[in-house]
């Protein structure tokens, strides 16, 4: 019968020939991609017939389940893929499989030639070579197709991918398209069941239609994110999460989005239960996979999220991007920027909801991922305020382990208090003993404890909140509260004693001043106008070996009994060696409290001397 039919011969256009030549003869390192392209075409064809059936009742096989069948024969080295989708008419065969859909495709691919890596990426980056990628694995390809409408005819298309193709009419009872070929020797692995299964799992596992390989269904998971939110079971979502991340643990939670409007997309976003091991390299995190119409077009699509949110995992599926589009085009697409904006605010709002209503979850989240958020404060100006509201701190007003927000802090602020105060250091225990806290305790003014080393960078970057400056209580320039603004006249004895302190400590401190804020401790060390927190300085020392810590200012509490005693000793004899020992001991003691005393040997030796003197006779 087919012998009676006319076989029509078609010549590819010059541009098409060049494109095919490029695909066939380049040593492409990812030939497996042909399978993804064929599956995605089949899946498209199925979507189209599904749509057509909504309005047109006159369709071949209206009740057949929509599916993709792949059959491989390792002995014969053959491969076949069949769908019962929309199929193609005679004209469509000529026009769709025989021309390049998008102008610029050839130029783009040519410009990549000579750079294997870029060329590979251009193809693997979903560039529009689609169907023709099949010529990477086959010398001759046959397509048999019949359009879904009842009055259509069947056609066979055949080509060696060189210069021409043929079309003939055939007897075909079923609707849809079957593509088959003998694999090149270099590509015979694609006739192995397990190999094909692997590739489907890698690229097409979430295709919306069943894929049957030699009669066995191989794509287990459906496109969960296309369901309604309340129809996504947590257990299914968790399985999906584990599949895409290879994580063994369930995620902390997930967020499902279905956005319509300016940009259209669905997303299933997971918050893992653990931070990645190397959290400092947040730009290396594999985050969201981008689907266009249920077909994966880009794993880890960086443009979907700002770097500091890359700790989330999941998928975004949009109808606003063509499937076969280069990475470059995707990157600069306005749709991507819009999705990025919406995802950012949705994820931050989701976390805020946890922070408000699911405190335990938020605590677990914060323990692992707070540093990502903190990085966002300096990276994302638009979302800065939302991120700041997600921050949590310990404080003098709360029991250890309890957290406050800046908002709650400002709610408790004293009427005379102009600034928000903090003290940074490694451990709350040590911070509690810091003499600089005394003044604030006396006035019942709350001070935040910043115990995460990165806070020393992050909090100064906030600068102010709710019109209030955020300041370290270790800065000398700290504003005093109004009731303390009574000037006490400095007597000559105080001045002389301070002079002695300066002489003894001249290489060690920037200055010595009379303290207006110490309550219980005899002395304290504070930072000058340009100095940083001790915590910040410690970090800088770690990062930069040449870093020299700026000298501190010592404040002396003239009301303290020990200082008063020293003044008496000084009056009796300003050459008493005990004076120098005590001053050095006070200085080392202050360093010790901050955790910065380099060696305790001198400290202990001097203490012994002082005790010896004190116990004489
Ligand atoms: P793209 O999929 O980007 O359009 P392809 O080269 O892969 O590029 O395919 C070209 C066209 O051929 C498709 O747009 C579609 O119209 C048609 N086509 C390919 N495969 C099928 C199929 N299995 N069923 C119906 N039409 C198909």
Can you summarize this structure?
37% of the residues lie in helices and 18% in strands. With 617 residues, it is of the alpha+beta class.
General description of the model:
This protein is of the alpha+beta class and 617 residues long. It folds into three domains: 8-216, Histidine kinase-like ATPase, C-terminal domain (Heat Shock Protein 90), CATH 3.30.565.10; 224-366, 2-Layer Sandwich (Ribosomal Protein S5, domain 2), CATH 3.30.230.80; 394-614, Four Helix Bundle (Hemerythrin (Met), subunit A) (Up-down Bundle), CATH 1.20.120.790. The strands form four sheets. It has a nine-stranded mixed beta sheet with strand order 1-6-5-4-7-3-2-8-9, with helices on one face. A hairpin with a 4-residue loop joins strand 2 (68-73) and strand 3. Helix 1 runs parallel beside helix 4, helix 9 (334-357) packs parallel to helix 11 and helix 10 (359-379) runs antiparallel to helix 11. It is elongated, with a radius of gyration of 36 Å. Residues 124-128 have low confidence and may be disordered. Bound molecules: adenosine-5'-diphosphate. Adenosine-5'-diphosphate binds at residues 37, 41-42, 45, 83, 85-88, 96-97, 101, 128, 130-131, 177, 323-324.
């Amino acid at each position: 019968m087919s012998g009676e039919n006319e076989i029509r011969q078609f010549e590819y256009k010059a541009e098409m020939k060049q494109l095919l030549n490029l695909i066939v003869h380049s040593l492409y390192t990812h030939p497996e991609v042909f399978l993804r392209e064929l599956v995605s075409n089949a899946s498209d064809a199925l979507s189209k017939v599904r749509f057509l059936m909504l309005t047109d009742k006159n369709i071949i096989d209206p009740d057949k389940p929509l599916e993709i069948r792949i059959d491989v024969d390792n002995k014969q080295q053959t491969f076949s893929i069949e769908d019962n989708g929309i199929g193609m008419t005679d004209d469509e065969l000529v026009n769709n499989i025989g021309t390049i859909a998008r102008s610029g495709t050839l130029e783009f691919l040519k410009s990549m030639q000579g750079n294997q890596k870029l060329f590979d990426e251009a193809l693997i980056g979903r560039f529009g070579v689609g169907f023709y990628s099949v010529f990477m694995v086959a010398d001759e390809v046959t397509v048999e197709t019949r359009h879904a409408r009842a009055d259509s005819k069947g056609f066979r298309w055949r080509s060696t991918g060189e210069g021409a193709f043929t079309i003939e009419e055939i007897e075909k009872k079923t609707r849809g398209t079957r593509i088959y070929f003998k694999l090149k020797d270099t590509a015979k692995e694609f006739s192995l069941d397990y190999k094909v299964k692997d590739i489907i799992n890698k690229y097409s596992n979430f295709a919306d239609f069943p894929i049957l390989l030699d009669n066995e269904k191989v794509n287990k998971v459906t496109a969960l994110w296309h369901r309604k939110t309340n129809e996504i079971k947590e257990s299914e979502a968790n399985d999906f999460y584990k599949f895409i991340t290879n994580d063994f643990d369930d995620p902390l939670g997930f967020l499902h989005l279905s956005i319509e409007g300016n940009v259209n997309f669905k997303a299933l976003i997971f918050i893992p239960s653990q931070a990645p091991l190397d959290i400092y390299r947040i730009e290396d995190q594999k985050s969201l996979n981008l689907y266009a119409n249920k077909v994966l077009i880009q794993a880890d699509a960086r443009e979907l999220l700002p770097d500091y949110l890359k700790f989330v995992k999941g998928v975004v599926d949009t109808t606003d991007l063509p499937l076969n589009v280069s990475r470059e085009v995707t990157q600069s697409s306005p749709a991507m920027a819009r999705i990025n904006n919406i995802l950012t605010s949705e994820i931050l709002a989701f976390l805020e909801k946890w922070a408000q209503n699911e405190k335990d979850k938020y605590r677990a989240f914060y323990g692992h991922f707070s540093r990502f958020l903190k990085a966002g404060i300096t990276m994302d100006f638009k979302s800065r305020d939302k991120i700041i509201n997600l921050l949590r701190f310990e404080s003098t007003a709360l029991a250890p382990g309890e957290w406050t927000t800046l908002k709650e802090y400002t709610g408790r602020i004293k009427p005379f208090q102009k600034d928000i105060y903090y003290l940074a250091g490694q451990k709350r225990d040590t911070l509690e003993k810091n003499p600089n806290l005394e003044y604030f305790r006396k006035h019942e003014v709350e001070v935040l404890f910043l115990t995460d080393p990165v806070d020393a960078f992050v909090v100064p970057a906030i600068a102010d909140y709710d019109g209030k400056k955020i300041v370290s209580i270790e800065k000398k320039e700290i504003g005093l509260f109004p009731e303390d603004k009574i000037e006490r006249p400095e007597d000559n004895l105080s001045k002389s004693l301070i002079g002695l302190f300066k002489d003894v400590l001249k290489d060690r401190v920037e200055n010595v001043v009379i303290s207006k804020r110490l309550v219980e401790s005899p002395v304290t060390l504070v930072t000058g106008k340009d100095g940083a927190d001790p915590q910040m300085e410690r970090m800088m020392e770690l990062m930069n070996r040449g870093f020299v810590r700026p000298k501190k200012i010592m404040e002396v509490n003239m009301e303290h009994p020990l200082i008063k005693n020293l003044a008496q000793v000084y009056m009796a004899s300003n050459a008493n060696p005990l004076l120098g020992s005590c001053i050095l001991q006070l200085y080392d003691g202050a360093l010790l409290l901050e955790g910065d005393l380099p060696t305790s040997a001198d400290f202990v030796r001097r203490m012994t001397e002082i005790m010896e003197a004190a116990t004489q006779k």
